[in-house]
Amino acid sequence: MTLLSSAQNWWRKKQSKASAEQLSDEQLLLSFIAETNASFIEILMQRHNKALFHFLLSLSDAQTAEDIAQQTWLKLLENPERYNKQQAAFRTWLFTVGRNQLFDVLRQSARWQWQPIEETANDDLPAYNDELHFTEQENLQQRFNQALEALPFAQREAITLQLEGFSLEEIAAIIGEKPETIKSRLRFARKNLKQQLEPTA
Protein backbone atom coordinates (compact mmCIF):
# COMPACT_ATOMS: atom_id res chain seq x y z
CA MET A 1 0.00 0.00 0.00
CA THR A 2 1.43 3.35 -1.03
CA LEU A 3 1.68 6.36 1.22
CA LEU A 4 -1.02 8.08 -0.84
CA SER A 5 -3.48 5.19 -0.53
CA SER A 6 -2.80 4.97 3.21
CA ALA A 7 -3.53 8.66 3.57
CA GLN A 8 -6.73 8.28 1.55
CA ASN A 9 -7.91 5.38 3.73
CA TRP A 10 -7.15 7.37 6.87
CA TRP A 11 -9.11 10.33 5.53
CA ARG A 12 -12.10 8.17 4.59
CA LYS A 13 -12.19 6.62 8.06
CA LYS A 14 -11.95 10.05 9.66
CA GLN A 15 -14.78 11.37 7.51
CA SER A 16 -16.87 8.27 8.21
CA LYS A 17 -16.44 8.67 11.97
CA ALA A 18 -17.25 12.37 11.77
CA SER A 19 -20.45 11.53 9.89
CA ALA A 20 -21.36 8.82 12.40
CA GLU A 21 -20.95 11.23 15.31
CA GLN A 22 -23.75 13.33 13.82
CA LEU A 23 -26.20 10.43 14.07
CA SER A 24 -28.72 10.10 16.89
CA ASP A 25 -28.38 7.30 19.43
CA GLU A 26 -31.10 5.32 17.72
CA GLN A 27 -29.49 5.77 14.30
CA LEU A 28 -26.13 4.63 15.65
CA LEU A 29 -27.68 1.47 17.06
CA LEU A 30 -29.50 0.73 13.80
CA SER A 31 -26.24 1.25 11.92
CA PHE A 32 -24.49 -1.19 14.25
CA ILE A 33 -27.20 -3.79 13.66
CA ALA A 34 -26.96 -3.33 9.90
CA GLU A 35 -23.17 -3.23 9.58
CA THR A 36 -21.94 -4.99 12.77
CA ASN A 37 -19.39 -2.20 13.11
CA ALA A 38 -18.33 -1.71 16.73
CA SER A 39 -17.33 1.89 16.05
CA PHE A 40 -21.01 2.85 16.30
CA ILE A 41 -21.18 1.36 19.81
CA GLU A 42 -17.94 3.15 20.66
CA ILE A 43 -19.60 6.49 19.91
CA LEU A 44 -22.57 5.53 22.09
CA MET A 45 -20.18 4.65 24.90
CA GLN A 46 -18.41 7.98 24.55
CA ARG A 47 -21.76 9.71 24.92
CA HIS A 48 -23.27 7.76 27.80
CA ASN A 49 -20.81 5.52 29.65
CA LYS A 50 -19.56 8.19 32.05
CA ALA A 51 -23.09 9.12 33.13
CA LEU A 52 -24.10 5.45 33.41
CA PHE A 53 -21.07 4.71 35.60
CA HIS A 54 -21.77 7.74 37.81
CA PHE A 55 -25.37 6.61 38.32
CA LEU A 56 -24.32 3.05 39.22
CA LEU A 57 -21.57 4.38 41.49
CA SER A 58 -24.09 6.44 43.45
CA LEU A 59 -25.85 3.18 44.37
CA SER A 60 -22.85 0.87 44.85
CA ASP A 61 -19.04 0.89 44.91
CA ALA A 62 -16.56 1.73 42.16
CA GLN A 63 -15.72 -1.87 41.21
CA THR A 64 -19.36 -2.94 41.08
CA ALA A 65 -20.31 0.14 39.07
CA GLU A 66 -17.53 -0.50 36.56
CA ASP A 67 -18.44 -4.18 36.22
CA ILE A 68 -22.14 -3.47 35.73
CA ALA A 69 -21.45 -0.73 33.19
CA GLN A 70 -19.30 -3.13 31.16
CA GLN A 71 -21.94 -5.86 31.39
CA THR A 72 -24.58 -3.42 30.21
CA TRP A 73 -22.62 -2.59 27.06
CA LEU A 74 -21.84 -6.27 26.48
CA LYS A 75 -25.54 -7.07 26.60
CA LEU A 76 -26.13 -4.39 24.00
CA LEU A 77 -23.39 -5.80 21.77
CA GLU A 78 -24.73 -9.34 22.08
CA ASN A 79 -28.37 -8.49 21.50
CA PRO A 80 -28.93 -4.94 20.17
CA GLU A 81 -32.40 -5.89 18.92
CA ARG A 82 -33.61 -5.83 22.53
CA TYR A 83 -33.88 -2.08 22.29
CA ASN A 84 -37.26 -0.78 21.12
CA LYS A 85 -37.29 2.95 20.38
CA GLN A 86 -41.09 2.93 20.56
CA GLN A 87 -40.89 2.19 24.29
CA ALA A 88 -38.16 4.59 25.42
CA ALA A 89 -35.26 6.74 24.30
CA PHE A 90 -31.97 4.85 24.04
CA ARG A 91 -30.42 6.58 27.06
CA THR A 92 -33.45 5.78 29.21
CA TRP A 93 -33.37 2.15 28.09
CA LEU A 94 -29.62 1.89 28.73
CA PHE A 95 -29.95 3.14 32.31
CA THR A 96 -32.89 0.78 32.88
CA VAL A 97 -30.80 -2.21 31.80
CA GLY A 98 -27.89 -1.10 33.98
CA ARG A 99 -30.14 -0.54 36.98
CA ASN A 100 -31.78 -3.95 36.65
CA GLN A 101 -28.40 -5.66 36.48
CA LEU A 102 -27.14 -3.73 39.49
CA PHE A 103 -30.18 -4.71 41.55
CA ASP A 104 -29.63 -8.37 40.67
CA VAL A 105 -26.06 -8.13 41.95
CA LEU A 106 -27.08 -6.31 45.14
CA ARG A 107 -29.71 -8.93 45.94
CA GLN A 108 -27.35 -11.83 45.28
CA SER A 109 -24.55 -10.32 47.37
CA ALA A 110 -26.82 -9.49 50.33
CA ARG A 111 -26.06 -5.79 49.90
CA TRP A 112 -29.65 -4.83 49.21
CA GLN A 113 -30.12 -1.41 50.83
CA TRP A 114 -33.71 -0.54 50.01
CA GLN A 115 -35.11 1.77 52.66
CA PRO A 116 -38.86 2.41 52.56
CA ILE A 117 -39.74 6.09 52.75
CA GLU A 118 -42.92 8.02 53.16
CA GLU A 119 -44.23 8.79 49.68
CA THR A 120 -47.10 11.07 50.67
CA ALA A 121 -46.63 14.67 49.63
CA ASN A 122 -46.41 17.25 52.38
CA ASP A 123 -47.29 20.93 52.09
CA ASP A 124 -44.18 21.81 54.08
CA LEU A 125 -41.90 20.35 51.40
CA PRO A 126 -40.32 22.65 48.81
CA ALA A 127 -41.98 22.68 45.40
CA TYR A 128 -40.60 20.26 42.83
CA ASN A 129 -39.17 23.03 40.66
CA ASP A 130 -37.64 25.03 43.52
CA GLU A 131 -33.89 25.37 43.16
CA LEU A 132 -31.53 24.65 46.01
CA HIS A 133 -29.47 27.68 46.94
CA PHE A 134 -26.17 27.00 48.63
CA THR A 135 -23.54 29.33 50.02
CA GLU A 136 -20.30 28.84 48.10
CA GLN A 137 -17.76 26.99 50.18
CA GLU A 138 -14.45 25.34 49.44
CA ASN A 139 -15.73 21.91 50.43
CA LEU A 140 -19.19 22.23 48.88
CA GLN A 141 -18.69 19.37 46.41
CA GLN A 142 -17.43 17.07 49.14
CA ARG A 143 -20.31 17.99 51.43
CA PHE A 144 -22.80 17.47 48.62
CA ASN A 145 -21.40 14.01 47.86
CA GLN A 146 -21.61 13.08 51.53
CA ALA A 147 -25.16 14.39 51.78
CA LEU A 148 -26.14 12.49 48.63
CA GLU A 149 -24.66 9.26 49.97
CA ALA A 150 -26.58 9.71 53.24
CA LEU A 151 -29.95 9.82 51.48
CA PRO A 152 -32.23 6.77 51.64
CA PHE A 153 -31.63 4.48 48.68
CA ALA A 154 -34.84 5.37 46.81
CA GLN A 155 -34.27 9.11 47.18
CA ARG A 156 -30.61 8.87 46.17
CA GLU A 157 -31.48 6.89 43.07
CA ALA A 158 -34.13 9.36 41.92
CA ILE A 159 -32.11 12.52 42.56
CA THR A 160 -29.02 11.07 40.86
CA LEU A 161 -31.01 10.36 37.72
CA GLN A 162 -32.38 13.90 37.81
CA LEU A 163 -28.84 15.26 38.14
CA GLU A 164 -27.93 13.21 35.06
CA GLY A 165 -30.55 15.16 33.12
CA PHE A 166 -33.46 12.73 32.99
CA SER A 167 -37.00 14.08 33.05
CA LEU A 168 -39.59 13.04 35.62
CA GLU A 169 -41.22 10.68 33.12
CA GLU A 170 -37.86 9.15 32.12
CA ILE A 171 -36.90 8.56 35.76
CA ALA A 172 -40.25 6.86 36.33
CA ALA A 173 -39.63 4.62 33.31
CA ILE A 174 -36.15 3.64 34.50
CA ILE A 175 -37.21 2.90 38.07
CA GLY A 176 -40.57 1.40 37.14
CA GLU A 177 -42.71 3.65 39.32
CA LYS A 178 -45.44 6.20 38.69
CA PRO A 179 -44.31 9.79 38.00
CA GLU A 180 -46.10 11.02 41.13
CA THR A 181 -44.11 8.56 43.25
CA ILE A 182 -40.86 9.78 41.70
CA LYS A 183 -41.92 13.38 42.19
CA SER A 184 -42.45 12.71 45.89
CA ARG A 185 -39.06 11.01 46.25
CA LEU A 186 -37.35 13.91 44.53
CA ARG A 187 -39.03 16.42 46.81
CA PHE A 188 -37.96 14.52 49.92
CA ALA A 189 -34.44 14.15 48.54
CA ARG A 190 -34.16 17.86 47.77
CA LYS A 191 -35.49 18.75 51.21
CA ASN A 192 -32.95 16.47 52.90
CA LEU A 193 -30.09 17.81 50.79
CA LYS A 194 -31.10 21.39 51.48
CA GLN A 195 -31.23 20.78 55.23
CA GLN A 196 -27.76 19.24 55.22
CA LEU A 197 -26.12 21.77 52.92
CA GLU A 198 -27.58 25.05 54.13
CA PRO A 199 -25.03 27.00 56.17
CA THR A 200 -25.61 26.82 59.89
CA ALA A 201 -26.13 30.00 61.85
Low-confidence regions: 112-138
Structural class: mainly alpha
Strand content: under 5%
Major sheet attributes: none
N- to C-terminal separation?
74 Å
What's a quick, concise take on this entry?
The protein has 201 residues and is an all-alpha fold. It has helices spanning 3-20, 25-35, 38-59, 62-78, 90-108, 140-150, 153-163, 168-175, 179-197.
What can you see in these coordinates?
The chain has 9 helices and no strands. The chain is mainly alpha-helical. The protein has 2 domains: 96 residues, Rna Polymerase Sigma Factor, Chain: A (Orthogonal Bundle); 89 residues, Winged helix-like DNA-binding domain superfamily/Winged helix DNA-binding domain (Arc Repressor Mutant, subunit A, Orthogonal Bundle), CATH 1.10.10. Helix 3 packs across helix 5.
Keywords:
mainly alpha; 9 helices; DNA binding; 201 residues; RNA_pol_sigma70_r2; RNA polymerase sigma-70 factor (ECF subfamily); elongated; RNA_pol_sigma_r2; Rna Polymerase Sigma Factor, Chain: A; Arc Repressor Mutant, subunit A
List the helices and strands and how they pair.
Elements (H helix, E strand, L loop, with lengths): L2 H18 L4 H11 L2 H22 L2 H17 L11 H19 L31 H11 L2 H11 L4 H8 L3 H19 L4
Helix pairs in contact: 2-3, 3-4, 3-5, 4-5, 5-8, 6-9, 7-9, 8-9
